[in-house]
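User: Round two. Same drill as before: sequence, then structure, for each protein.

Assistant: Same drill it is. First protein:
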Amino acid sequence: MSAPPEAELKPAVTPLRCLTGSVLSGAFAWGLYRLTAAIAVSFAAKPLLSSSAIAQRISAAVRTLVLGVAALGTFIFAFVALGLVLLALQLLFQSLMSSNEPTP
């Protein structure tokens, strides 16, 4: 039996592709980090001017949610970038080890 058509169209995983993806993911992580820092500074500079306890609680929950989502996106892209760098190193190491093996 032959391989399914989807398997034939998949490009090979190479260290260069991994490093390219890592650079892109790292750039997104850096941008989201800057956005997260700007959001935190903005929230700290603008306190809530309401005397209502319910409004203060809702405001604190929304601010925490917004900052948490931005931080989560930052760390997801950062971990993906790190994982792709490690995968590139693993692929490079495997290719070096397979080229050093003597053929029987």
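Second protein:
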Amino acid sequence: MTPASLGRAWRNPFTRYLLLFSLLLSLAMGAFATLAYRDAHRALLNEFRTALRDEISLLEAIYREEGLTGLQQSIQRRAQLEDGQSVYLLMSPLGTSLAGNLPAWPAGVPVRDEASVTFTDPVRGDHVVAEVFLLYGDYRLLVGRHAIYEEVGRQLLTHYLWLSALLFVTAILCSLLFTRLIRRRLNVIVLTTRRIRAGKLQARIPQDRASDELTALTAEINAMLDQQEKLLQYARHTSMAIAHDLRHPLGELRNQLQEFSTQASVSAEDWLALLGKTDQLLGIFAALLRLGRLESGSQPLQLETLDLLELADDAVSLYQPLADDRGGSLVLRGTPSRLSGDRELLFVAISNLLGNALNYGASPIAVEVGDGHLTVRDAGAGVPEALLARLGEPFFRVDSSRSAAGNGLGLALVRAIAEAHRGELQFANAEDGFTATLVLPLQQN
């Protein structure tokens, strides 16, 4: 690998994670091996010394019962019969060797009763663990064993080191496999986002069968992309609708202003008509502003406990005179339905549904309330089935020529109010007309 590729690999967080994880695993295994070696060394050494003290006690008993000769014979037998791991030395008060397999008293070993010592065997060169005992008459007895536990400890440590190396290599391989799988899935996300940035807005990240965080992330990204595409289409449609709906009244307003500028005097009726068109434009912008605040969540709801039936009764009372003037009928029926909501916004939603039914439907118009829903039913011709799904889009109007009155924001505002209350707005064609249903969550007791 070149220095540049090594530098890129080191800057990659997956590489650093891989090395760090493997290093920490090796350090943990090394610490465990060290502790295990120390505990095993201590346990074996204590076991050695316990066995040596027991043997010295036995030899002392032989000395008391059989005397010096019996002790010498016993030590000689033991030195000859053992497997070469035991060390014996019996010396006279004058320092003469009487029995055993050591030629002389080891250098550095104190002549002190019940002393636990460790020295180097002058012949074999390995360590010997020994116990010193002073017998009656100033005879010195040394009993020891070659420290074979050190070899056991070295083998144990070697095995642990090999195990640590094996774990390190295994961790490297497993981490490489894991990071390769993760990077492969992340590369799919990167390639998809590049395609989207290049203009292929319909591209989506392929979903896999795994149920993990990356799958959840992929699902959220796809949902976000669907929403962004929907918002982009909505923005395009809205901008075209705004341009279409505002061009005509703005053109008329400009023409009338230009006409007024050439007239010596302008009648009050002309000024009132001009003000009406201005109010119409201001109403469109006010509705757009309110709709934008609701959809963005920047307008907080003033929640209170209310009865949907009472609120509908207030709205019906407001629109009843208009229905009477048009020779129609407006009927309210239902049961009380208590819920938590913004009274002002819900009143606007119900009023817009009633106004839509009066403007585009036919009498009789029935309002039904119950169990968290409010349905406005008219006896009109309904809406083509292909257009039902688009009702509630800003500036969408069934009249494609846009010759009828209205700006296509009423139902969009109702839908935004419903969604702000965690509800929904539903449309359907019935045998006797068209229905719009506002569904809201009931108050939890």
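The CA atoms of residues 201 and 228 lie 9 Å apart.

User: Perfect.
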